[in-house]
Structures are given as structure tokens and as C-alpha cells.
Write a structure and sequence with these properties.
It contains three helices and eleven strands; from the N terminus they run E-E-H-H-E-E-E-E-E-H-E-E-E-E. The chain has helices at about 25-30, 30-40, 100-115, and strands at about 5, 10-20, 45, 50-55, 60-70, 80-85, 90-95, 120-125, 130, 135-140, 150-160. The chain is of the alpha+beta class and about 160 residues long. About 20% of the residues are buried. The mean pLDDT is about 95.
């Protein structure tokens, strides 16, 4: 059952790509390198890595960021960049299972929100749906838990306001 939670603003370092689902590994595979760069520079990690969906384009394409929360300041080299997740109220739901079930889990949360009368932090932009805070937070390290059926992902959707 989804819950509404308050989240503070959170700085992060990320890389961004616009792609379709078959090409998703291209951005997902950037997370280990980002984490390695941050730890090599002594930057304190401030949470689990995540994917932030910025724009949902027509035709099952999206602009997504692979991000790592950090404590403090850091100026990464390109193509990485520093940004901040906005503070606010978010709907949180936790999904356990392989990534191929995330789309259905996401739809269930969005349907729940519609039933609750929630207005999402999203607008219709020239390239598609622009989201202020739509995240998949990766709570499981696949190296430590190789079975995708046991992976834990927090789905977070920022509420408008």
C-alpha cells in the first residue's frame, strides 16, 4: 500500500540519457562508474542510487538520469553533473522483484494516486510528460543479491504543491 512521505532536498551526481526500454542498460551501467568516481574522490554517499525520470516521451522513450545521492559538494567531470532532488511530499511504494515488473508496479501506484485525488508534480511539455520528482531507488545491490526476484526498489512520485 503506498504511503505519503516528506522528503528533504537531496544533492546528487548523475548522468542523463534519452532512450527506450531496450537501451536502458546504457544508462543503468553508468551507476558503478559514478559510485567509483565519487568514492575515489572521498565524496560521502548519502543514500541508494536511483533513476530519475525527467521526461516521458511518446513512443515508450524517456529521458532518465542515473543518480547517486551525495553529502556535501562535488563538481563532477562531464558527462556527469550535479543536481538536487526537490524537497516535498512524495508517494512511496516498495516493489520487490525483477525490473520487468516495474512498469506494472508504477501503473498501480499512479492508479492508486488517481483514486486518492493526488495531483502529481508533472506538466505537459513540448517533448512529453515532464516530471519534477519520479524516482526508482535501488535498495538492493545486484552484486550482493544476484536473484532479480529479490531486488527491492522504492518507487517515489512527487506530489504537486
Amino acid at each position: 500500500m503506498p504511503a505519503i512521505v516528506d522528503r528533504p532536498a537531496q544533492r546528487y551526481v548523475a548522468e542523463r540519457a534519452t532512450l527506450g526500454i531496450p537501451d536502458f542498460p546504457r544508462i543503468a551501467d553508468r551507476l558503478p562508474a559514478l559510485i567509483g568516481t565519487l568514492t575515489a574522490h572521498g565524496v560521502a554517499l548519502a543514500g541508494a542510487p536511483f533513476f530519475r525520470y525527467r521526461v516521458l516521451h511518446p513512443g515508450m522513450r524517456f529521458t532518465v538520469e542515473a543518480g547517486v545521492p551525495i553529502a556535501g559538494d562535488f563538481t563532477p567531470g562531464e558527462p556527469a553533473f550535479l543536481d538536487e532532488l526537490p524537497a516535498g511530499k512524495y508517494v512511496l511504494d516498495t516493489y520487490v522483484g525483477a525490473p520487468d515488473g516495474l512498469a506494472a508496479a508504477t501503473e498501480a501506484v499512479l492508479a492508486w494516486g488517481a483514486g486518492e485525488g493526488i495531483t502529481w508534480d508533472r506538466t505537459d511539455g513540448p517533448d512529453g510528460e515532464e516530471w519534477g520528482g519520479r524516482l526508482e531507488v535501488l535498495r538492493t545491490n545486484p552484486v550482493e543479491v544476484p536473484d532479480p526476484a529479490r531486488w527491492v526498489t522504492d518507487l517515489l512520485f512527487r506530489i504537486a504543491g
